[in-house]
Amino acid sequence: MIPSIHRQGTSTLGLLRYLYGKGTHEEHIDPHLVASFDGMAPDPGRDPSATKEDLAHLLDQPLHLLDADQRPEKHVWHCSVRAAPDDPVFTDEQWANIARRILVATGIDPGDGAGCRWAAVRHADDHVHIIATLVREDGRRPDHHRSGKRAQAEARLIEADYNLRRVTSGDGTAAKPTTSAERHKAQRLGQERAAREELRETVRRAVAGATSTDEFLDRLKGAGLLVRTRVLPSGDLKGYTVALLGDRNGDKEPIYYAGSTLAPDLSLPRIQERFVPETVSLDTTDCERPEHPTVSSAPASARRSATHAAWAALLVLDQGCDDGEAAAQIAATGEVLDALAKTSALHTRDELRQAAWEFERACRSHARAEFRYAQGLRRAARDLVQGGPAFSRGEDGAGTAMVLDMLVFFAVATAHWHAQRQHAQQAEAARRTVEHLRAAYQQAAAEPLTVLRERGRRIAPSLRRHHATTVSAALPDLADTVLAEPGWDVLAATLADAERAGHNPRALLAEVAAGRELDTADSVSGVLVWRLRRTADLPLYAPAQEAAWANRPNDHMPAARTMPVSPASRARRR
Fold it and tell me: CA 25, 29, 35, 38 torsion: positive or negative?
């Protein structure tokens, strides 16, 4: 349940005309009074003999207790209280009780018999409006200081008493919610989302990996948005507004939204903070990026790079960096998710879109992001956008699975980071992101893991025992779990690939297992597979070369050896 305190107004009658009217887009259905200060106020909605003027005159009577020069100009208090979409539809009596509780909590009518006059008007199933005159019956002004926070605190109690969806407390960094008028308009036009939400998602995708204001604006236009810019007398760009091509007002003119009204971090100055000239020394992810001769497509290569960048960012969060650096890693990972959602294969697109949508709330807090620390992630987002759409098969599909496996861990770490700092909404958003990422991973990983599993099952029994011994030696505490998992066949194929590539499987396995915790993994063997393939730069969609290999006698098995490791490669493995 979300109470919203609106700006104080100057006209009681003007607000009543809106509340009892049809609404901006005729979304007001059956407007009527559900409660009032004395229980006897006239209801212009259902009483043919009552008028809005009658109700306005009644509410404003306390103003006349004051001399004309002492009456407050802005004397109209307005609060809307909205239920969550999945909450039950309340009766008028329930809304009346909720309105009274909000009025007591905010100090508008504290129950002392001399509070402000008020009325609660309902014109939709999911919310009620409360209007009050900010002069008490005794002529004094009400004590409604910090009424917004007081209303929020009471809303949390109402949620518990009515067993409603629990809303986590905000910190002023959330995007402006969609209004009921905007939602009704979208429903009437058969649109999945309101214009505000559609624009926010499109603008965020345009930001992903962009390196300049011009590139950002070009992407907006390329996405089919109407774009207007504001220029200062100096010639510098001041801001921008965007509109959907088909979203128009009653005069058939496009409805423009400023970036700052879509989300606090989408104002032009906040977006321009991301355009940091690339440097090497300041970026923890700027080690030499690997070449992948086995990668056959730009989307697959971009997903490898994104996995390396996400791993480096994960280590930054684990190591307890300052808040500005951590906030930058989180925000830039949001760009990676936006880029993935834009370029993902069709069967993973819905879940990735939802993951990106949820994670954008986790990207905003009062910790100001220092984007000079997140160049690797922003470059990875740019590579994903420029690499274009990925197919579901081969290296493309496996690359998507690998980066999603890494992003699950990053989202878990993000939730923990926010929870430690009492960022309740952001932590909850990160946890919801994890669920969507896991679902997307299952969809992306199904085909490549099936191929690897079949390869692992065809390995000769003697070689399977050899790899099982490797697991037992490298992971004595996890071996029983790993060998019992359905993913053991996949891990066996990966160990065979690593050994064939010249790596020491035991040392490599111990290294990737020690790199970070495995407690939050749904499948330990599955996580180890992607870590091994990323660290050893193995083909993600392994070629079917195992037929001849599996039938070779044991005495022909090549001895495992450790290849020389370059400093850049060692940095990647960390």
Answer: positive
